[in-house]
Protein 1
Amino acid sequence: MVRYEVRGPRADITIDEPERRNPLSVVTMAQLLERTREAIADPEVRVLVYTGAGEQAFSAGGDLGSGFVDDPVGLHRSRGSLADLFREIWRGGKPTVARVNGHALAGGFGLAVACDITICVDEAKLGTPEIGAGLWPMMITVPLLRAMPAKAVLEMMLTGRTVDPQEALRLGAVSRVVPRSELDEAVDLVVEALVANSGAVTAIGRDAFFRESGDFDSAFDRLQAGLTLVAMTLDAREGVAAFHDKRRPEFRHR
């Protein structure tokens, strides 16, 4: 579900289920974490590039078809893989680039924003639609608040609305917006600039930057527990069922 390729100083980590819009299933998140650790440990790799296969989606977010609400307690620990992925991205000492080739929603939006540099095609949709399925985007709260104004983040989470790349750029969620025909060139140029710099200085500078961004370990622990509580509500069960049935949910507010 995750394709890994090293080309010189660059490691490409690709979510590879384009027919399903590259969802972040439990297995996929575990593989993303494993490949990220592999790239960080490889002394030849200087830059990590995350993307999705195909042209439709970077990632549509969590896989609601994998027992998301049927076994919330059992899935509690596995949900921590996304938090661990963010920790590795920020602590790994190597710059990261998100090649956002299509829609980035929910956890996929969080992954795109968590990267150091986020280059997005101009036709994508981005946002946090979880509330419409009776869920809440817990785990991505930390990366979104690191990049965007708190009021903008909360409004997106409360309403579930999506934004276009230009608005995402104004809010600080992405670094650059380009036409699809220019996406690969833009990513290549950024990678070239990153690998031309001192790897030692980059690692020290990134570590200093993220230390000044506040403590996130305890925040992730609280958010992981909150996600499990949300998944145990009756409304989460109804919301996920309505999502699969392609109908409006009838929430009971319980």
Protein 2
Amino acid sequence: YEMGTAHNPRQYSNYYGMAKVYSKKKMAVETAEAVVKAYEVAKEVGKEESGLKYFKTASNAITKAYSAKDYSTVLKAGQVVLDAGQGDANVYYYMAKSAIKEGDASAAVEHASKAEELGGTEKEGKFVYAHAEALEAAGNKSAAAAKYAAVPSGKYKESADYKAKNMK
């Protein structure tokens, strides 16, 4: 793929091929960077819609990095995606969860708020729950309790109700 990009730098699929290889190698930051480059080149040649589809690969790499408890990598790869203006609810969600783990509650609140804005109550309220967790980590117990109370029915509801009730 590197030879392909050197030979024809306007062939965006070569950059995406690099992203897929990086993803297989569990290199989330490099995956995100290659996806962004593929998108930028696709956009330059009038194929922006094709390039936008590639961001799913970056999102998946970020999810895998979070599952591997590589929180600093999640934050770095996520920032690459955000800098390209292409963060989705899951990217913001895993960045929020990672920021909590890394001890940056203010960043966690910012990312969780955006995850909730983009994802709403999808996935049984996991985005709302994450926002509540971030608020709790930031020490804003009253806002956290209200956010926990707003979690809809689903697998997060019982835990959210317990936290909302017992958070004073």
